[in-house]
Structures are given as structure tokens and as C-alpha cells.
Amino acid sequence: REKQPVLTTVPSQAMAETSTLLPLNVLRNLSDKVYEKRKAAALELEQVVKQFVQAEDVRRLEALIRLLVEKYASSPHSNYRKGGLIGLAAAVVGLSVYTDVLLPEIVPPVLKCFDDQESGVRYYACEAMYNIAKIAREGFISFFNEVFDALCMLSADTDSKVQNAALLLDRLMKDIVTESAAFSVETFIPLLRERLALQNPYVRQFLVGWITVLDGVPDIDMLEYLPGVLDGLFNMLSDPNNEIRQQAELSILEFLDDASTTPEKVDFRQLSGILAARSNTESELTKLTAMKWLDKFTELAPGVLEPHFAKLLSIILPSIAHTNGAIQEVSQTLNQHIHEVHQSGAFGSLDAKGSLEALQTQLKNAAEPTRLESLQWIRSLLTYSRELVKPEIDAITPDLFLAVKDHSEHVVLESLEVLGKLASLESHCFQTLISELLQLFKKEQSPNLLSNRGELILRKLCSVLGSEKFYSELARYLQNDDPEFVSMMVQVMNLILLTAPELQDLRGKLKRSIINSDKESCNLLHQLYNAWRFSPGATISLCFLAQAYSHTSSIIAVLADSFVDVDLLVQIHKLVLLLESPIFAYLRLQLLEPQRYPHLLKSLYGLLMILPQSKAWETLMSRLGSVPTLEMLQMSQGTKPVKPLDEGNASGLNFDKMLESFVDAQRLNASRKKD
């Protein structure tokens, strides 16, 4: 039981004035430590107030309220404060038409007791405010923000009785707000936004409850005020309390449904900034929910995402490889939809520099899907935002070449696709591509790139850039390069030339170059020859392909005279196996016309003579042995003589000079091997 406070002595004149307002027993009982006595005094006080109201004695009503506030509610003694609270509530019950007039004098002292150090006072303050609000109803709305703020704090009170009392008052306030036309959402939202920053779980439950209630009021459209509360709701998605997370998520998703139904009421531009920031978080639920919203924005208001484009790339791309399957899925969907928005032309003035910097960073990401998607975005920017990104592309080119060395074949192919796209923009980009690619193959830190990935890289670039353009330019660069590197490079290029489907048109052009006396094709042959000459096997293959058999026999004679070594024998071995491939079917058929193609037969027998007896020798010997050369010559005696093709006159090529350059190349090779 509470200790009875020591009363201070009241002057007789003051006591006389006070006794004219209330009987002395009421004054005493209001401050009694026993609740029943305070309650009985409050009932008598209510009757006194009704008498004053009936007599329209406003002066005495004001004096009575002042007495309850100053002598009781503001007293340093807890029982007096409790008496003042119950007395003020009783006074409101009896005030009738004077309620709204005197509420400004009644509510503030009750509110002050919400923060009282004693839990009992806080409890009775809630009870008093409940009774006041119940009577005042509409008139109570003018104090809504102040009461709400105080209730927000009481929702986290350490005393369960106070919490329960606050909960009852909270329910009543929700009922009043729901019914009232005087409630001002505009003045309430700033306070709500401020309180949403608090982290106490009870406060958060209290706030989510209010947001849900307001969203359900027909006359209140919370979508208009969503920017003020959405960020706070997202804060709660990372709360340790599962119930709070669920309540916040439910509220956020309900807002998303509302936004989808009535998008014209939503400030998408302001919300997009909040969502972009919230998607960049470690909280999985927060990230997932923000991305769901952003994905909806690609449908409802795609243009508002443009200012956040670079930031979104840096968030979405790593999330594509997130360990959380739901985040991974929504990230992929969002990424695809942003691709579609970009391709539609909705991002007409995006931040090209910031976007490429974000993609440059993600090219170094450990996750393959992220690196791959980063390259696809660069290609998309080069296609749909070409003029915006062209001034900035030089900064990202080195990273594109590094991606060519990536351990993932998918990333390598995509990086080549991007480099090819870049090379198609301007001629200097194409030259840079050739130069940088050759340097990449030559670097010491990637000695196996050419042998391991050379075919893949060159075939892809042929597909992207066009095999003729790419091969001729590559050969032009190679003809003056280091002979050893050129020899390795040409051997890879030659195998691709003879076997890859991507180079079928180029093979056909070379095959018909001399026969058709096509100057353009012959120039192409000459361009390739200048690089191919550093590899004897590749040179012979090229000449076989172009049907320059007379020149081929001359090359073989030169090789047999001075340049036979193990390396040459290995190259001839590979060449013999290639001669058995479908590519050279026409050549094998030409063996049946020895009168027309005598130099072909001579060339093949020359190779046979150079080869030691081995598998390749047996293969070639078997092929030549299957040709009835003598019988074919006898058969052709009765026909009109066929003069062998004059390769030099037909092509316009100076084969003598070409042979000299071939010999010079072999001398360089021999000198290099000797050193």
C-alpha cells in the first residue's frame, strides 16, 4: 500500500476559496492512498461539474480545472497526481458542451504524467486519457500527435499493466481516427516517419499497427504519403523479432498491391531512391522485398529507375549469384526487365561513366554469372546507348581483355562478343583489338593461352567480325612480328582456316582465287601468305587450299634442300592427316587428272620423300598408291591435251618473289633455332 503523503499547510483564505469549488471531504479523498476513496471523490466531483455546467458558471469550471491541475496533477506527491488524473477525467465526463473549450487545459497535464517515474501514475494517466478521449471523441483529434507520441513511448513500458492500459487507449484512438473527418494525415506523417527510426520491438509493433489501420481508412490514401513511411518499414525487415519482420513485410507487400492497382497516386521517383538504397543491404528479406518493388517499377514507371541505373547494376549483378535462391530468382527477373526497359529507349540519358565503372567492378566478381551478365550489359550499352558510352569505353577495354583469360569458357566467349561489338564502332577500335589480342597471346604470364584457348578465341572473333576482315588484318600485323611467335600463331590460325565452319566462305574464296583470276581474292591470299611463310606446314596447306600446286612443289624443293628438321617433320605429319579430311576432297579427286595437275602429284610425292617412314608416310603412300597414275595418263592420250594452269599469269601474283620471301622466313627460323 502507498504511503500517505505529508500535506503542506494551506492558508485559510486559499482553503476557503477551494472549499467553494469542492467539499473538503472530496478534496481530501482525491489524494487518498486508497483507490476506492479517490474514485468516490471523483464521482462527487463529476456531479459538482455538472452543477457548474447547468449554471453556466464557466469561471468556476475553469477554476476547478486549474485546481485539479496545479494542486493535484502537478503535485510532487504520487497520490495527489493520481487523484488529479482521476479528477480531470471525471470533470470531462461532466463538462458536456464545455468539453472542447477546456480540453487544452486538461490534456497537457495528463500527458505529462505519461512520463512519470512511478508506474502507477503512468497507468492512471492512460486510464484518465482513455476516459477523456472517449468523451471528447472528435475534439480529441487536435491533441492526436502529442498523445500518439506519448503512447509510442508507453508501448515499450517496463510495466505490463501500463502497457495494457496504453493498448486500450491505442485501440480507442484508432477508432476515433477511423471515424473522424478532422484527422490530418499531413501533420501526422512527419511524426510517424521520425518514430519509425526507433528500434524497440514494442514500439515497432505499435507503429506498424497504426500504418495498417490508416491504410484501411477509406478516406485516407496512404499511397500519397508512402515515401514518408516506406523507409521505416524496410528498417523493420531486419528486426531480430520474426513477428515484427512478418508484420512489416505484410504491410509493405500490401502497399505494393495498392500501388499496382492505382499507380497514378504513387510518387515513384521518390520511392525509387528509397528502394535502390534498401536493395543494397546484407539483410536478405530487405533485399528481396526491395527488389520485388523495383521489379514492379519496371512495369509501372520504368523511367524513374534511370537516375539509379549505375547503382542498380552494382546491386543486381552480384545478387544474380546470391546463395539465397529467392534473391537469385528475383534478381534475374529484375535484371531481364531492366534490360527490356533499356532496349526500349526509356534510359535516354543514363550515367554512362558511372554505369561502366559499376560493370568494370563486377567484371572482377568471383561469381561467373555476375561476370557473364556484366559483359552482356556492356554489349547492351554498346548497342542501345552507343553515343553515351563511346567516350568512356577506353577505361574498360583493359578489363575486357583480361576477361579473355577467364577460366570460364562462357565468360571468354562473351568478352569476345563485346570486344567484337566494340571493334565495330570505329576503325581504331578494330586496330586496338588486333594489337591487344596479339600482345595478350605473347605475354609471359599467359604462355598457354594460345595453345589452350587460341582456337576458341580466334573462331569467335571470326564469327563476330567476319573471318576475311579479321584474318587479313591479323596477318598484316603478324608479318613483321617475332618469327617464333608468328610461327606458333599461324599454325593455330591455319588449323582453324582448314577446319572451322565459321571460315567456310573464306576457304571458298581462297580455293577459287587463282582459278577464277580474282584479283581481290588473290590479294587476300598474298596477305595471308606474308604471315603463313613463317610456318612451312601452314604455307604448304595454304597453297594446297588455293590450288597453287606449282608454287607448292617449289616450296617443298626449297625445304628439302636446306630446312628439314624435327619441327618441319611434325608439321608435315599434321598436314598429311589434314589432307585426308573432307576439306581436301577436291584435291584428292584432282589426283585422277595427273595431266592437268602434275605439280600436285609432284608436291605430294615430294612430301612423301621428305617424311621418314612413319604413320604419316604410310597414310600418304597409301593415298598415292590408290591412284592409277599410269592408267590415267594412258586414258588421257586419246583426248585433247590439257595445259597445266599458269598460276602466275592467272593470279597476277609474283610467285618467284613470294618464294624468296618464304626462303627468307625459313632462314630467320633456322637462325633463331640455332641461337
Describe it.
- The protein is mostly helical and 675 residues long.
- It has helices at 12-19, 24-30, 35-54, 58-73, 78-95, 99-112, 119-136, 144-154, 160-179, 185-195, 201-216, 226-236, 242-261, 268-278, 284-300, 309-319, 325-343, 352-362, 368-384, 386-389, 397-403, 409-423, 427-442, 449-465, 467-478, 483-499, 504-513, 519-532, 536-546, 549-562, 566-579, 585-590, 598-610, 615-625, 629-636, 647-651, 655-674.
- The protein is rod-shaped.
- The chain has 37 helices and no strands.
- The termini are far apart.
- Helix 6 (99-112) runs antiparallel to helix 7.
Topology, pairings included?
Blueprint: H1 12-19, H2 24-30, H3 35-54, H4 58-73, H5 78-95, H6 99-112, H7 119-136, H8 144-154, H9 160-179, H10 185-195, H11 201-216, H12 226-236, H13 242-261, H14 268-278, H15 284-300, H16 309-319, H17 325-343, H18 352-362, H19 368-384, H20 386-389, H21 397-403, H22 409-423, H23 427-442, H24 449-465, H25 467-478, H26 483-499, H27 504-513, H28 519-532, H29 536-546, H30 549-562, H31 566-579, H32 585-590, H33 598-610, H34 615-625, H35 629-636, H36 647-651, H37 655-674
Strand fraction: under 5%
Largest sheet: none
Q: Low-confidence segments, ≥5 residues, pLDDT <50?
A: 1-16
What is the SS-derived class? mainly alpha
Which range best describes the helical content: under 10%, 10-25%, 25-40%, 40-55%, 55-70% or over 70%?
over 70%
Oligomer class = single chain
Global shape: rod-shaped
- The pLDDT mean sits at 90
Compute the number of helices: 37
Report the C-alpha radius of gyration, rounded. Answer: 46 Å
| Strand elements, count | 0
User: What gap, in angstroms, lies between the N and C termini?
Assistant: 109 Å
